[in-house]
């Protein structure tokens, strides 16, 4: 399976950790989404990463769908199957993904929009979404099970990425989450290689 990704991408980090946890080898291809490379667009018309192409040539995206595919292929090694546990993991993962989506928009506002065209009210709204989501993740941290799930991988991707794009924010405002990442890295040296790092 071929994965288009970037080492800094939090969504790609989740998928790469999930693949490693399930024992799946990926043919990993780094891409710059800004350049809109042809092979990425062939795999995903949205030009986003992570994007997967299966061995028989089927495109699979986005990150949660790729994780669902890995979960099914691995006999559910990524998400528990009882109803309550499944709901807890999937909503935790969705909260992480939504936090990244919101904070990523604030990064893109600076990266892609000329200064005179930026609108602080909109950026502030995205920041509030991200911070509310982070508060919920902090409150739900104790729900994470000893068995690794996509919720763990999503959270590790988010917090590693925040350390690159928002240095000091996690440690300063969400110290329990920052400490959780330190523990995750220390306990999972193989997976730690996929955590986005400054
Ligand atoms: N919902 C998607 C979001 C993926 C996403 O936004 N990836 C970013 C990089 S972290 C990207 O590809 N950005 C380029 C773009 O939006 O054109 C997922 O879960 O995979």
From TrEMBL:
Pfam families: GST_C_2, GST_N_2. CDD domains: GST_C_6 (cd03205). Residues 1-78 form the GST N-terminal domain. PROSITE patterns: GST_NTER (PS50404). Keywords: Transferase. Its EC number is 2.5.1.18. One of its GO terms (cellular component) is cytoplasm. It is an enzyme of class 2 (transferase). GO terms for molecular function: glutathione transferase activity. This is Glutathione S-transferase. It comes from Aurantimonas endophytica.
